[in-house]
Amino acid sequence: MSKREFQTEVSQLLQLIVHSLYSHPEIFLRELVSNASDALDKLRHLTLTDDAYKSLPFEPRIDLDLDEEKKTLSISDTGIGMNEEDLISHLGTIARSGTKNFLTQLSGDARRDSNLIGQFGVGFYSAFMVADKVEVTSRKAGEEKAWRWISDGKSGFEIEPAERAVAGTTVLLHFNDEGAQYANSWRLQEIVKKYSNHIAFPIFLTYDKSEWNEEEKKSTKTRVTEQVNVASAMWRRSKSELKDEDYKELFKSLAGGWEEPLFWFHTKAEGSLEYTTLFYVPAKAPLDLYRADYKSGVKLYVKRVFIMDDSKDLLPEYLRFVRGIIDSEDLPLNVSREILQQNRVLSNIRTASVKKILSELKNIAENDKEKYATFIAEYNRLLKEGLYSDFANRETLLELIRVKTTKADGLTSLADVKSRMQDGQKAIYYITGGTEALLRTSPLLEIYRKKGIEVLVLDDEIDEIVFSGIEKYDDIELKSVNRTATSDDFKDEAQADKTEEVKPLLEKIKAILGDRVKDVRASARLADSPSCIVTDEDEPSARMRQMMKAMGQQNLPELKPTLEINPEHAIVQKLLNHADDKVTEDAAWLLFDQALLLEGTQLQDPAAFVQRLNRVLQQSV
Ligand SMILES: Nc1ncnc2c1ncn2[C@@H]1O[C@H](COP(=O)(O)OP(=O)(O)OP(=O)(O)O)[C@@H](O)[C@H]1O
């Protein structure tokens, strides 16, 4: 027998499991049954596709064996099994990125942390919530030797050779005090029905059944084996046969968590391609959503046979929050990951699935505003990613996203913004490039406020990249307020006269600021502020440049901003007739620096700014 230690993360996790106020220890059974079902899926796939496995006997089933006296329960499957190496690596380390991610999110606050476990499901290790000793006996399909892995869930585990007649795995739990309540056949049947009713394989329970014996006038116990679940691939049944509870139950066994799904879309396609899809949107966004190694949530089946659950090609990346099943009649069983990428059948299913998901979302947006708001709170950003990456569905995605604006409370749709447009309004305008507070107080919004025009306040980091690529919503142009040409929409004749009037001053300022600016112009977009910074149509904005730098683009050419001056502002009017060049120079720099500050750009020379400010203050106090 050899003794081994757990990887540090496993010990950490086990510590937490044992000491947490975990509120639903019953999910241990769901986790172990789902592992058994995965193992059966894997072996079935091999027996259908791999010659080396074709001749192996395969009777897929899951057996629960209960000993009420001894307070033990075993969960056995006839699946793929594990050899010595597998036992060590699969049950002694944490490979799941999700679990690692989970561990990094722990706060040390037991109540909060156990809630987190609830959202997660911790797989095999959840056995230690209910057992103080776990023995896993396993034989890998195609191999002769069997091995036993034994652990008390504390320091580590032991491994020894064992016997097993057929390939598969048996997990034997010795219940602890907390787990003793599950040494009860009623309870077990109830839990299996609740979480695992639709697992595609039969689950049998063997236990001592009490029956009243009329002759002996007492109840006697007989050992019986009964099937507990319905074992149908639920998604293949028709919608009318299924209850909400059925859908929710399948979701929980798929997503491995506690949360309810927010909604689901079940589709059967018949025609040139035959397939069934069942997609769920989780009520809470999966925690690994923004990790590069996020776990894909869609399982691929071919004719009810599980094929894979980790392909990121089944749905586009921006729909990575979707959980569910694609079951195709037309794909070959031995379809490989590489083939999938260019498979026409799959790409048709994928295209149709995306359309279906988006159109269902649109439906909900129109008919159940409250539910849609919950959805948006979790997934708005992902939809925006879609705007960037999914050109074909851009129009629908524009209907689906929600934005902040200068007029609406909370979030609003572009359709609503359009309906609130003023007569003669030429475009829908937006501002990007900073925090919400910075954007809302930007001088660039002054003209819009004055004219009562609504502006989208796009403060999400990705907004700038996303929206700079979108020219229109419906038939209406989308324009950024900080672009030079945008203010052309507001130019009028009175403006032209003003511009003439300040021309000499503009030239003076330009000469003072020298090569720090590209141009100095009269502004048509300012009301209360004396100056602002704008960017040319074809140039990246200040914020965009910061992001490009952050992403490693070091040699960006220095961009010069364009400074706009408000010809009607009192400061500007005074400067027009000012003879003192020293004062004009300070004013020119202060107008420029304050515009940069309001744009969220750091000053190159803060000390010079402060000196100038103090000079001006000294004259005015
Ligand atoms: N009954 C089993 N038969 C074969 N392998 C198993 C069995 N139970 C667990 N394993 C192996 O142990 C690994 C770890 O299991 P665990 O439940 O912790 O995570 P997981 O099943 O990979 O993750 P998830 O629950 O998110 O699918 C599995 O990936 C699998 O390789």
From TrEMBL:
Tell me where in or outside the cell this protein is found: Cytoplasm
Please report the stretch or stretches of sequence annotated as the Histidine kinase/HSP90-like ATPase domain. 24-179
Say where the protein is mainly found: cytoplasm
Which residues does the annotated region (C) include? 547-621
Query: What's its job?
Result: Molecular chaperone. Has ATPase activity.
Give the record's family classification: Belongs to the heat shock protein 90 family.
- ATP-binding found in the keyword field: yes
Record's superkingdom?
A: Bacteria
What subunit structure does UniProt give?
Homodimer.
Pfam families noted in UniProt: HATPase_c_3 (PF13589), HSP90 (PF00183)
Provide the residue span(s) of the region labelled A: 1-337
| Keyword terms | ATP-binding, Chaperone, Cytoplasm, Nucleotide-binding, Stress response
- NCBIfam families noted in UniProt: PRK05218.1
Q: What is this protein called?
A: Chaperone protein HtpG
